[in-house]
Write a structure and sequence with these properties.
- The termini are far apart.
- The chain is globular.
- It has 404 residues and is α+β, with helices and mostly antiparallel strands.
- Helix content is 29%, strand content 14%.
- It has 2 domains: 264 residues, no CATH class; 86 residues, no CATH class.
- It has a 4-stranded mixed beta sheet, covered by helices on one side.
């Protein structure tokens, strides 16, 4: 077959940046108190801030070069928040939104543009019930773990280690319109594989086949239709696990007898997390959860153990006096439920590692030259820019409509 070789070096496989050209840099939040693992904490922090006045409000706000209580800022697309300068804000807390704060760590965010240094409004414009976000993970040489993760929540784009990756929406417009794919890719793949290929198929393949490299995520494309079908099906299963029931899917579950349960109550303020290999038990001080597969405990992204990072984000001591110090008085029940689900997600993903390794060993592969010969590469500049998706006016600073 023309444009096919049995052995394509990794550095000749196309980059995800070439297949999904429009990308957005990670959010820069600017202040940590606007994110929390629970909604009640965010509302308490907001109430404390708006109750303060003058110098105290400014100190609690934590000004930065990009944001101060006097900053004049437009509302975020799709969010009903105030646009008066925050120094004069006295209204109720805006409704928090779900945020993929890091790999496998969904928290909550105050969606107020006056509080976020760099919010990436172009992401908010396309975030809806049809959208999925592919988030590249930072490259750490020799580190285990997936190179690409998928979320339905707005991603912050944080990477636990290494240089942060890029955020790539699957669609360039709301409502699942205009796939964020290089023009000509879908017809080419449909011709190669003998059937219709969709944007979710490409994303599923990337989730299953992406490999980390110093240049970015590499996505080898197979020559054989059967390898493509196997990879797409694997990628769909991996994506469903990561989405945790979003978009109408089923929440992940381990088979009976392997589901983790709380065997001893988690204390009000646990400070240590450990794992007992022989007992397959996760301990939070005197609290005990089992069975927890060793593969879930050892699941790393960018060289960082995911269960340890999730726990640290909820128990690390905060500096007294700041809004970050406002949090739950005791370990909330919903955190336990989220931890059990996270264990399930990591265990199910680890179970597929053998399939991902087998897929990586398949061949032959399509070299980048085949994409150039078909006119798919190089990527046109227009494909790297966000689409114009404005079908309504957005409120600018001080209640004025933004000039767009």
């Amino acid at each position: 077959m023309r444009g096919v070789t049995d052995d394509v070096p990794l550095d000749d496989a196309p980059l995800l940046d070439e297949l999904m050209p429009w990308s957005v840099a990670p959010l820069r939040l600017g202040r940590s108190w606007i994110v929390a693992p629970d909604v009640r904490t965010l509302r308490a922090r907001w109430d404390r801030l708006v109750a303060a006045e003058g110098t105290e409000r400014e100190e609690l706000f934590r000004p930065s070069r990009a944001r101060t209580p006097s900053s004049s800022v437009a509302a975020l697309p799709g969010q009903r928040t105030g646009t008066v300068r925050f120094a004069r804000e006295s209204g109720p807390c805006p409704e928090p939104v779900r945020l993929a704060h890091g790999p496998f760590d969904e928290q909550w965010l105050l969606p107020d543009h006056r509080l976020i240094d760099t919010a990436r409004p172009e992401l908010w414009r396309v975030a809806d019930a049809r959208q999925l976000f592919a988030v590249e993970q930072g490259y750490v040489p020799g580190a285990a773990g997936p190179a690409l993760l998928v979320t339905a929540a707005l991603p912050a784009g944080r990477s636990p280690a290494g240089r942060p990756g890029r955020i790539r929406p699957l669609f360039r417009r709301p409502g699942g319109e205009e796939p964020n794919l290089v023009p000509g890719l879908l017809p080419l793949l449909g011709e190669r594989y003998g059937g219709q290929v969709t944007a979710p198929d490409v994303l599923a393949w990337a989730v299953a086949a992406a490999r980390p490299s110093a240049a970015g995520c590499r996505v080898p494309l197979p020559a054989r239709p059967d390898v493509w079908s196997t990879g797409v099906e694997l990628g769909r299963r991996l994506t469903d696990i990561q989405l945790r029931g979003a978009h109408g899917g089923e929440r992940p579950r381990l088979p009976g007898g392997r589901r983790p349960y709380v065997r001893a109550p988690i204390p009000a303020r646990p400070t240590t997390l450990a794992y007992e290999y022989g007992e397959e038990t996760l301990t939070l001080d005197d609290g005990r959860i089992s069975p927890v597969p060793a593969e879930a405990w050892e699941f790393h992204v960018g060289g960082v153990r995911m269960l340890e990072q999730w726990f640290a984000h909820r128990t690390a001591p905060a500096e007294p006096g700041g809004l970050e110090a406002i949090g739950p008085a005791a370990w909330p029940q919903e955190w336990t439920s989220e931890l059990l689900e996270l264990i399930t997600v990591l265990a199910l993903l680890a179970e597929r590692d053998g399939e991902r390794a087998a897929l990586a060993a398949e061949g032959p592969w399509m070299p980048r030259a085949a994409l150039r010969e078909a006119g798919v590469l190089p990527v046109p500049d227009t494909a790297r820019r966000p689409a114009s998706v404005l079908d309504h006016q957005e409120e600018g600073p001080e209640g004025q409509f933004a000039l767009l």
